[in-house]
Design brief:
The protein is of the alpha/beta class. The chain has 10 helices and 8 strands. The protein has one domain: Arginase, Chain A, CATH 3.40.800.20.
Length: 305
């Protein structure tokens, strides 16, 4: 079967002026993958909205209820950084459902990609940094609850440390968190992942890829996960507004080939989410996110998954 990709039109939520830009990228990514022949319509799978009990496997019932009802206080809303609306609640819950579906498809086919996801700054009792519910953590918990996996490895290559994810699993040996991020970037207060690899500001392609090669194979050998959840944030790009690292388009593509190839070659199922990315030009940003799916399609062809 061709590479499964998860997308839902509700990933785009109507927001006030000034906030619509980051939401539009989900639809444009879907359209770009089709227009460039990276994927066909038949490869796309539509997720359902995640039920509240899934969210509460990770988040406190009080926080889940307050966010979904729109009764979260102003300070908590500012910490998230997105204006509340019923449409955004729906988009957020569908996106979580999308990451769960991506993980299920990865178990079935060996490799699957989401066109959203990567909300790794969400903590059990509050959201942060444009992240409301932690889709990576929820996907891990749902699949464990369904007895589909026991051991999960989260590989987080977003330029920002996955602090929410690290805290959620800090005392849980069943989920190993690996975060490779810029040392002098958000969040100001880092959490303790199972493995943190802080990178110096300005790191370029070759040094970055060599650092990744120094760690990823050993982590896989140590953890031997039933599933890898991969946050493929593109904000390490040299032109990213919030990045502070200096990867090129080619460097990002090579990174995706390296991560996916390493996992697939050793028969570790891998589910991918797009993570963060911030650019002034939306179409440029969408292309960067598409590099994950281009690499996944190439890996799918090479290994005939």
């Amino acid at each position: 079967m061709p590479l499964p990709i998860v997308y839902h039109p509700n990933y785009v939520a109507p927001l006030p002026d000034g906030h619509r830009f980051p939401m539009a990228k989900f639809r444009l990514l879907y359209e770009r993958l089709l227009a460039d022949g990276v994927a066909e319509v038949s490869q796309f799978h539509t997720p359902e909205r995640s039920p509240q009990e899934w969210l509460e496997l990770v988040h406190t019932p009080e926080y889940v209820q307050a966010y979904c009802d729109g009764t979260l206080d102003a300070k908590a809303q500012r910490r998230i950084g997105l204006p509340w609306s019923p449409a955004l609640v729906n988009r957020t819950c569908v996106a979580v459902g999308g990451s769960v579906l991506t993980a299920q498809l990865a178990l079935q086919y060996g490799l699957a990609c989401n066109t959203a996801g990567g909300t790794h700054h969400a903590f059990p009792g509050y959201g942060s940094g444009f992240c409301i519910f932690n889709d990576l953590a929820i996907a891990a918990r749902v699949l464990q609850k369904l007895n589909l996996v026991q051991k999960v490895l989260i590989v987080d290559l977003d330029v920002h440390q996955g602090d929410g994810t690290a805290l959620i699993f800090q005392d849980d040996p069943s989920v190993f968190t690996f975060s490779m991020h810029c040392e002098v970037n958000f969040p100001g207060t880092k959490q303790q992942s199972d493995l943190d690899v802080p990178l110096p500001e300005g790191m370029e392609d070759e040094a970055y890829l060599q650092t990744l090669a120094d760690y990823l194979p050993d982590v896989l050998d140590k953890v031997k996960p039933d599933l890898v959840l991969y946050d493929a944030g593109v904000d390490p790009h040299l032109d990213d507004r919030l990045g502070k690292l200096c990867l090129t388009d080619t460097g990002l593509f090579r990174r995706e080939m390296q991560v996916l190839g390493t996992c697939v070659a050793q028969n570790y199922p891998i589910a991918c989410v797009i993570g963060g990315g911030y650019a002034d030009d939306l179409h440029t940003l969408v292309y960067r996110h598409s590099l994950l799916h281009r690499a996944a399609s190439e890996i799918d062809r090479q290994y005939r998954l």
